[in-house]
Amino acid sequence: MRYAMAVDTRKCVGCSDCVVACQTENNVPIGFCRDWVVEVIDGTYPQLEIELRSERCNHCDNAPCVRCCPTGASHIVEGGVVLVKPNKCIGCGACIASCPYDARFPHPKGYVDKCTFCIHRVREGMKPACVAVCPTKCMYFGDLEDPNSDVSVVLKKRKYKTLIPEAGTKPQLYFLI
Amino acid sequence: MNEELIISGRENLMVDPQLHIWHWPIPLYLFLGGLAAGVLFFAALYYLMGKEEQYRTAVRRVPFIAPIALVLGLAALFYDLNHKAFFWQLYTTIRLESPMSWGAWTLLVITIASFIWCALHIREFFPKWDWKYRWLKDLESFFNRYKKPLAWVMLIFAIITGVYTGILLSAFNARPLWNTSVLGPLFLASGLSAGAAAIVLSSKNREERLLFTKIDLIILGTELFLIIHMFMGFLASTQVQIEAAQLFLGGPYTMVFWIFVVILGIIIPGVLDLMELGGRHIPALIPGVLVLMGSFAFRFVFVFAGQVSRWLY
Q1: Contacting residues of B for A42, CB less than 8 Å apart
Q2: How many domains does chain A have?
Q3: In chain B, what's the furthest Cα-to-Cα distance?
Q4: Span A45-73, mean pLDDT?
Q5: I need a labelling partner for B180 at 20 to 30 A (CA). Which of A94, B145, B231, B269 fits?
Q6: Residue extents of the structural domains in chain B
Q7: What is the average per-residue pLDDT within B170-174?
Q8: Could you tell me if B255 lies within 8 Å of chain A, comparing CB atoms?
Q9: What average pLDDT does this structure show over B214-231?
């Protein structure tokens, strides 16, 4: 099993509903976010292109945060999902510094917090909160090893990219372009 | 001209607009750890070479800096943890993939070894010292019998500690400035030069002072070479590392790096060391303090600038 997510940069309107849904679902402390929207404007005026990306933890196959964690608090569960055990985390910040996507942050309670791919919902057969709530249905989630999953189907049809693959992390968040 | 504008909705504390997860305690600890490593390295080395009497200060007196520096450094590390009540989780596992994990164990070993070494030489400072309890006296004679293996442990773990402070940073490919393998030897050299400077500052024996001035000069030269080497590596590397080097070549950290680390911390004390060896009398205080300050500034600049350097996507 290999969980992954695809985000359609052509359908996304940048409404940030995914951000609010995540904050509500996961009780993210005020002022913090586990997912966020990035807007990239490229070109020379008036020929401009806008790319909108709903970003979060890439649940990398080669996760530097899991490698550098001194206590094993950062760990990988089914489907390659990267999680943090709060009662094993000492809050040293090594994983935060090791993430090229800056996807982690220190929770005000001290441990490190991040996107969980809503594994608690996925285990009950639901989609992650951000995917479920998206008004343009621009996000796809599923198992890459299942050829019929939403994410496998859309990745077969469309062109896509990942973020800084040259960092060697093997990210599992795909952006349809 | 083609331009790219990136706007992010993320505003996480200590992560945005640029990473600031490690504050002043981390470079302070890296400096103290490096200094302790340098001091213990020379103590163990000259003890094992059988020159304990000749270089008394280096072998018997200066090592007292080490346990103090290590305890202060560990306190600084602890202070910068966000989830302090769980710090003991560090010592429930050894993860070789994580420099912080094996580094924590190395620190434990070197701290204990430094305390034992100082306990064996406590009469240098308190000639009438008495351990009072029988088991403490037994322990002292036990370690006196095995002083050679203890010195070997100190020597090896001092090198590991010195290198580890650099490897800790170089293991992060997410921060291009840190991601260079030169950092391990560079931090070791910086720690050793701080240790040699501490010996020059403390010793009253001219022969000993001259020896460690010579050693300091060689290490300072090595450091300068490694710094040039590091920049050559950066500038010949990928765009992110070229940009990381620019932080010091015209960017916001240029002045503080070249003035405090290179000129005041390496070149001027190096020249003063040369003059001292050439027969002029230079007060040991000046090059010694400059080297210590340079070593200190080096870690501050590197820890902070490294957190600014990043991948853009």
Answers
A1: 2-5
A2: 1
A3: 81
A4: 95
A5: B269
A6: 25-308
A7: 94
A8: no
A9: 97
Q: State mean pLDDT over A79-93.
A: 97
Let me know if B218 is exposed, middle or buried by CB neighbors in 10 A (0-12, 13-18, 19+): middle
User: Is the per-residue pLDDT at B211 higher than 70?
Assistant: yes
**Are the beta carbons of B9 and B3 closer than 8 angstroms?**
no
Q: pTM here? A: 0.94
Identify from A96, A112, A175 which residue to disrupt to test chain B contact, counting B C-beta atoms within 10 A and taking the largest count.
A96
Q: Which residue matches tokens 């349809």?
A: A176
Nearest by Cα to B36 from B113, B95, B90, B93: B113
What's the gap in Å between the CA of B292 and the closest CA on chain A?
A: 27
Q: Do B83 and A109 touch (CB under 8 A)?
A: yes
State ipTM. Answer: 0.92
**Residue numbers of the domain that contains A7:** 3-176
Model confidence at B1: pLDDT above 70: no
Question: Domain B25-308 class?
Answer: mainly alpha
**Facing residue for B98 by CB, picked from A38, A69, A93:** A69
The H or E element that residue A6 is part of is: strand A3-8
SS (H, E, C) B139-186: HHHHHHHCHHHHHHHHHHHHHHHHHHHHHHHHCCCCCCCCCCCCHHHH
Residues 110 to 169 of B: which have CB under 8 A from any A CB? none
CATH code for the domain in which residue A86 is found:
3.30.70.20
Residue A169's pLDDT is what? 96
